[in-house]
Design goal:
Order of helices and strands: HHHHHHHH
Number of helices: 8
Radius of gyration: 17 Å
Oligomer: single chain
Largest sheet: none
CATH architecture: Up-down Bundle
CATH topology: Vanadium-containing Chloroperoxidase, domain 1
Number of domains: 1
Distance between the termini: 12 Å
Structural class: mainly alpha
Helix content: over 70%
Strand content: under 5%
């Protein structure tokens, strides 16, 4: 790994941890709860369908499926590296959940909170869905030499998955921010110099 990639990975990981620490208590926690209320507010049946439709794109199983499609299309290296990134992001996310032990929004008895999907296992910070998806698409797109426009669209998709987790009632906005930073950090850590 190049020194620049290593520094980027460390900076992104540090930023993710800072988000988790700042929003764990006090004014940062209060802002996070307030932002959660705005993000969890109902937007109608069309929004419900959209966010339920995209939320599982961030599951580790969606990454397994995407890697299988890439491998079947003859892009085995992109499949393997993308799945490696998704797996590392998932494992790191699960470890950080055990470190932070932040209860999920539906366990916090928040007024007006709506749970729109089944209750996932585990604690809240960071959100693994956007971390897993962003790590996968960042590394796979790099391997596939995707255009800037395609990479931006994939980043936006990971952001939509993150928003869906708040809308669904299973994560706070800081969980999503931490997950996105974690996903990009993992992708930076796995970056290799192209020769």
């Amino acid at each position: 790994m190049e020194a620049r990639s290593a520094l980027r990975a460390i900076a992104l990981g540090g930023a993710a941890l800072a988000v988790g620490a700042v929003t764990s208590a006090g004014a940062g926690r209060d802002l996070d709860v307030e932002a959660f209320g705005a993000g969890n507010r109902g937007r109608g049946e069309a929004a419900d369908r959209f966010f339920r439709g995209v939320t599982e794109l961030g599951s580790i199983w969606a990454s397994v499926g995407a890697a299988s499609v890439l491998a079947a299309a003859g892009r085995r290296r992109a499949a393997a590296r993308g799945l490696t990134a998704a797996s590392v992001a998932w494992v790191a996310g699960q470890g950080l959940k055990r470190l932070f032990l932040r209860p999920r929004p539906y366990d916090a008895d928040l007024p007006g909170m709506t749970l729109r999907v089944g209750r996932p296992n585990g604690t809240s910070w960071p959100s693994s869905h956007p971390a897993v998806l962003l790590a996968f698409v960042t590394v796979a797109a790099r391997e596939l030499e995707a255009s800037r426009g395609a990479r931006t669209a994939l980043d936006l998709l990971a952001g939509a998955v993150g928003l869906s987790r708040v809308y669904a009632g299973v994560h706070y906005p800081s969980d999503v921010a931490g997950g996105l930073l974690l996903g990009k950090g993992v992708a930076a850590a796995l970056e290799r110099t192209r020769g």
